[in-house]
Fold:
Amino acid sequence: MKYNPNEIEAKWQKYWLENETFKAENNSEKPKYYVLDMFPYPSGAGLHVGHPLGYIASDVYSRYKRHQGFNVLHPMGYDSFGLPAEQYAIQTGQRPEDTTSVNIDGGTDKEGNKIAGYRKQLDKIGFSFDWSREVRTSNPDYYKHTQWIFIQLFNSWYNKKSDKSEDISTLVSIFSTEGNANVNAVCDENSEAFSANEWNAFAKEQQERILLQYRLTYLAETEVNWCPGLGTVLANDEIVNGVSERGGFTVVRKKMTQWSMRISAYAERLLQGLNDIDWSESIKESQRNWIGKSVGATVSFKVESQKSNVESEQQFIDVFTTRPDTIFGVTFMTLAPEHELVAQITTAAQKAAVDAYIEKTSKRSERERMADVKTISGVFTGAYAEHPFTKESIPVWIGDYVLAGYGTGAVMAVPCGDERDYAFANFFKGQKGMTEIKNIFANIDISEVAYGSKDNVIIANSDFLNGLTYKEATKKAIEELEKLNQGKGKINYRLRDAVFSRQRYWGEPFPVYYVNGMPQMIDAQHLPIILPEVEKYLPTEDGQPPLGNALVWAWDSIQCSVVSTQLVDNVTIFPLELNTMPGWAGSSWYWMRYMDAHNENEFVSKDALAYWENVDLYIGGSEHATGHLLYSRFWNKFLKDKGFAPTEEPFKKLINQGMILGMSAFVYRISFTYGIASKDNNEIVGALKKIPTIFISYDKLKKNDQVLNGLLSTIKLNDEVINIVKKRTQLSDEFLKNLVPFISGIHADLAVINEGANELDIKAFKSHPLYSDYKDAEFICEENGKYIVGREIEKMSKSKYNVVTPDDICNEYGADTLRLYEMFLGPLEQAKPWNTAGISGVFGFLKKLCRLYFDDNGLIVTNDEPTKDNLKSLHKTIKKVAEDIEGFSFNTSVSQFMICVNELSTQNCHSRAILEPLAIVISPYAPHIAEELWSLLGNTGSIATVDFPIFESAHLVESNKEYPVSFNGKMRFTMVLPLDLTKEQIEEIVMKDERTIKQLEGKTPNKVIIVPGKIINLVG
Structure:
């Protein structure tokens, strides 16, 4: 019999499905272990070989834990809402729900594209997922519960005193009996004080408006990243280099009324919780930086142009500073261009310059502004503020290095103590509105650079702070500011509340309708509020989100159902929310739904939560560090406060898999410009168009040091190029003499490359639909007539034509080969290049493994007693593989398998006592062949839950030692001796050995050095 992976794998995948082999129980006597993968967004592109890396690792671990006797939950689902499906729907005229369904289940879309389908691709690789718990975030039976969680957030506030979320009814009770003077809550900073009598006298609408300032999800006018090209708001992590990650569209800052989540209420708990979880330090540090805790003080500067005898009319610029000790070093102030005071305080003379600057700045994202530390820009507003102590006038500027969403959106600039303030002050030095830099540090030279350290600081030129250290001056400055009622000590966080609205269609509908402009929650018993049908997925003509196109999208408060928008009377029938939730809504709690995926009444039962608690191992990409992972922790903590989640943190251990990189191929095109300026430019352009496209082989370029993979480079005009141009055109020698050629690398589809030889199939290239413009191109090849492509390691991507699909590998070599090879590529957490050439070696290993069990005539396993060497090889492998899996060093396990099989083959081992446990040890990595071998050995049932073999150290204890025997330090031969011999016994045996006698040639050594178990050396 022969190893036929396709037949074997199809057989066992069918068996697993029919027997629900990997179905986890919610009530088991076994200890629980929950392994989770970051679930995929199901795009039409499907999986490439880079995607399964983390899934294979988690599957190896899951299978191993089952072998150890755990009840393992290893689920899979789809993060199926999101912008990509909607954009594809807009482009192709298809419904997002249709394309999403086809992308998951496979089939042919309305464009005629054949889609393999994520489910089929995942099944083909042999993952041990519990598919009975599959979730899709775009299914109403799932987002019904997302809507329910939103309602819970709306009906909650954060009590700083109890340090947790509480029901909004408790806040209403306090307001009605005490007012809000003594309420210690996370709320809007502009909340006004009121008494119990005032609260009770407020109209219901006014009370609701006040409560919005306290709710954990609330409506507010917010500065957002607006992308006109996509017609939606984007999160910071959806923007790259100032443009949308999807489509590369311009993003501008804009104020809009949005739903927001008060994640800032949990800033300290999110920070402290990082100490209790087993995550990589780099991910923890990313979250710490994003949360950005700062200890300092708020300071209020009076705006001089707004001075008034009536205190309530006085305008203040509030700043947060971590260095109140430097307050006497303030020489100017900078506001964020979006700061609400800018329009109020800017003078008429400066208005045009300020307006132009604001317009320019609106085109840059917050992330871009934070990252750009080199560009210095700003404008003087013409206004001044008053220093709280010296009463000096301080010029007020705007600059885009200050962000409206961080702190107060204003900074007190102390150039002597801050590099960015120092650069700003020097850049605008001498201009009206920029005063001289003050030095407030004793014995510190700031003539060339600011002194930003807090160490060795002695304050000078600072009135009552003179002679004090950083700590002393900080404490004193805060005390004096509090006396003036112009400041106080404060802890600040960079973490901003998360904008939760998206102006797009393909997302969870909000369970919200509006009465007199105020949001009302739909009762949970009427959920889900299902996404309506629309004809257009673009915003409406008046700029409303796509749901503004829905014909049936109003709430009948009597019938408690969605009805026609034409019936809105604002009496009993009201408009529904037109925005949808962001992509992270459904992914912020999905791990809980897996615990109880078919519960119609609850998002998850208390019993299921009590059993599974949280995720023991989570594997996914590090790109989600400050998005999904932060939001998930926030929702989990909220649900714990509300009595649902049993633990504070959702994910105990997190592993970030590295990226598998693609090996791109490049062909090199020669293009031309003309080296002499001419009045008749049209004639030159016409002449250049006559020149055919020419491609030159990589090795030809390399010989002349011209290769810059993918980059533009000029080259020399040689005879070979000139001859091609002459052959194909009638251009004069004079014209050709002034041609300037340059090369550019063009990605070549791997389908037209002979991988082993890096050779371009020119005929296939010319006939490929991607390269139809080059069907008449000329190719400058090597002397042997071959065109060699250049290679470069890049991110695997369809746009780079370097994608390798797992389906192709599975079809040719089998899923077990793919699984072993991906684990063999290198450490899980490191990036590594894909090289298909290495696949055949792993495939050969599996065939060699099979030859231990059967040959062409069938099973060759015996009941012979294993030898010591057989047992040693097996138990080395048991020990190594167990340690590697526990330490997530999967690549070295594969190496050990290869060593073990080579040793057993050399030993001619076919003993059942060795080969049966070996099949179990290898089964987490290569489950299909392991199942087949287990079955051939006469076992019934699946190998998946058989106990992992126990390592016995006695089999690794050496009884003999192979000694190197040296003469005057040079090793001449080796000899195997028992380890329990004494020095005297070893010496006697060595001196009698014929090889020793021959080496000594009748002489007697001066000295015999013997270290038992290590060396034998005869000297002299």
